[in-house]
Amino acid sequence: MQNSEIKTTCSYCGVGCGIIVTNDSKNGVTVTGDKNHPVNKGMLCSKGMNLHYVVNDTSDRILYPEMRWSKSHPMERVSWDTALERAAAVFTSIIKKHGPDSVGFYISGQCLTEEYYLVNKLVKGFLKTNNIDTNSRLCMSSAVVGYKKTFGEDAVPIAYDDIELADTFLITGANPAWCHPILFRRIEQHKEKNPKVKIIVIDPRKTDSALNADLHLQIIPGTDIILYHALAKRLIEQGYADTDFIKNHTENFKLYKDLVLASSLEKASKLCGIPVNDIKLAADIIGKAKGFLSLWAMGLNQSAIGVDKNTALLNLSLLTGQVGKPGSGPFSLTGQPNAMGGREVGGMANLLAVHKELNNPVHRKEVADFWGVEDISEKPGLTATEMFDALESGKMKAIWVICTNPLVSLPDSRRVEKALSNAKFVVVQEISHNADTSKFADLLLPAAGWLEKEGTMTNSERRISYLPKGINAPGEALPDVEILTRFAKKMNFSGFNFNTTEDIYKEYCLMTKNTSIDISFLNYNRLKNEGTFQWPVPDYGHPGTPRLFTDKKFYTPSQKAIFNLPTAIENTSEQPSNQFPFILTTGRIRDQWHTMTKTGKVSRLMTHIPSPMLEINPIDAYKAAIKSGDIVVVTSKNGTVRVKAKVSDSIREGVLFLPMHWGKQLENDLNRTNNLTNTVVDPTSKEPDFKFTTVSVAKYVKP
Ligand code: SF4
């Protein structure tokens, strides 16, 4: 370790807690919460406080490049030069024969901003395809589109410090008590000091967040928009609409008003499974709020109508004028540590860096000129699920996977398996042999992990932090930026003569000049010496911007926010049938992270919930003669899962829950939840519909 003690940021969720790392010869790396950090003020959740176990245990690490010369050859150790020369030769040959869109990159919200920027420059600027997408597509792409449609740009308006200034929280489609624990702890502490603070939770499950709420609306999955419209109707009828704000700072209110006033609370109550009085009570709490924060995550985003759900929720903030004021605003929670940084640098198939749009020819030219390339392809890139469809059908021939495990995390795992088997060439750039996807690699590249490389990340509140290198990576593992830069040089691309990671950051910061995310006055020195900054930071003395839209000027052409009407009010997912009568919803548990490649090796974290369990309501369990602990078989039209049942009244009748994490090659893959999930995506955001798959369930009978 270069310093005896360094300050960095947690590598798990988008909360972005500050961590102090120490290293000594006796204990190795240890971590504590940074008391002076504005996000967590010394607190860490179970995952963060056990991060050092992941760092100290290198037994699963990929230590050197491995390659096979053909599908029938075994993997063998090779040098970095051989590995990257082969990658360059295969990509060149495939592109020459089949065109640039025959290759693609699938990356991760855990990549640092410099990595995200560099790989997007490489793919969009030099490989001449827009086939680069990220696993953040699975978590927040519906929120991105929702913000753009409402505010004109992908801009989260709030700061975490708004938590302590709010008096009403609407948590919908999220379980922050488990998935964003430090933010939820801040809400709890605020409520402990201010008992009048109200928390409303909308969720089909009695989660830990719901159990701490003043009001839990246990909604039938998929009916969120109906409920938001019923709340809006009540708000308008009770005189809670902020007419000045609506008149001066929004568009399209009349159509929205007509739509929601035509709805019926009684009908909404029936469709959503929530008593009318609870809908009225929720609306009255929101209407009386001085500071109203809505928080949401995958429960809204991962849906066939995820964008519509987002805009319908955002409308409630516009209706009540609760944007750009202390303690108010809509607040999407990002799942991954740098999902926000990825958005900034255009880390998705349909985006360009600094919030420019791929489908805008002026933006394409600006970015191409900045990178010194002739042009950027106007053809939209394939999104996460589309890329694997293209591999399966043979349209795409090669994929480069960085820091993510699609075999476990994408919907319909069997299809992903087929896609990877069908690919001519699979590169997996990873830290760990634990990632199931790596068994499909033709080329396995060892990457440096957290603390083993430097770079920056942006958390859910637009806060940028610098993460220093503290220890050396094991074996021959290299920082991702170095792997990508070396590959670009093997491809003879200009524009990759970066000597340091900071050089990449400088180039990106320059690109942000005079944009909505201007950080052209930021650099590593300032981040190291002055701490974190929330973008934009539009001049040298600027302290950063905690809250957006304080001037009520939005990024739309009229500078007004827009009330959007949904294209569909009711869920468009396949509905339950006689064959598949249950709705399966999937999600996270408290102590695991994604596909468990890191948290799965920490024994302390495995004690909370050691194996996947199917949550089933007592009435459904009784009808199917299922008891807690029984092995059950869950079946959808895509596949099967075999797990233990947990009978619990925390879930609605007709709904089942499975955690999404497990996927190791155990029991013939029968504990892998995504064997079941459907392949439907939101038509605009292309985010998968993980929260609504129809399934059947039966007690397992040994053959
Ligand atoms: Fe890490 Fe998120 Fe936990 Fe904070 S809340 S310690 S960022 S996992």
How would you characterize the largest beta sheet?
A: 7 strands, mixed
CATH architecture tag of the largest domain:
3-Layer(aba) Sandwich
The protein's oligomeric status is single chain
Cross-sheet strand order for the largest sheet? 5-4-18-17-16-6-7
For the residues shown, what is the average pLDDT?
95
Distance between the termini: 56 Å
Characterize the overall form.
Answer: globular
CATH class division of the largest domain: Alpha Beta
Helix content: 25-40%
Count of individual domains: 4
Radius of gyration, Cα only, in angstroms? 24 Å
Unreliably modeled segments: none
**Please, how many helices?**
25
Structural class per helix/strand content? alpha/beta
SSE blueprint and pairings:
Blueprint: E1 5-9, E2 18-24, E3 28-33, H1 46-49, H2 51-56, E4 66-67, E5 76-77, H3 80-98, E6 103-107, H4 113-127, E7 132-134, H5 141-151, E8 168-172, H6 176-179, H7 181-193, E9 198-202, H8 208-211, E10 215-217, H9 224-237, H10 243-249, E11 250-251, H11 253-261, H12 265-272, H13 276-288, E12 292-296, H14 298-301, H15 306-319, E13 329-332, H16 339-344, E14 351-352, E15 356-357, H17 361-371, H18 384-393, E16 398-402, H19 406-409, H20 413-422, E17 425-430, E18 443-446, E19 455-458, E20 463-467, H21 480-490, H22 501-511, H23 524-530, E21 533-534, E22 561-562, E23 582-587, H24 603-606, E24 613-616, H25 618-623, E25 631-635, E26 640-647, E27 655-659, E28 693-699
Parallel strand pairs: 6-7, 6-16, 8-9, 8-12, 9-10, 11-22, 12-13, 16-17, 17-18, 23-27, 24-26
Antiparallel strand pairs: 1-2, 2-3, 4-5, 4-18, 14-15, 19-20, 20-21, 23-28, 24-27, 25-26, 25-28
The protein binds iron/sulfur cluster (SF4).
Residues 10, 12-13, 15-17, 40, 44-45, 47-48, 180-182 line the site of iron/sulfur cluster.
GO molecular function: 4 iron, 4 sulfur cluster binding; metal ion binding; molybdopterin cofactor binding; oxidoreductase activity
Protein name: Molybdopterin-dependent oxidoreductase
Domain 4Fe-4S Mo/W bis-MGD-type: 3-59
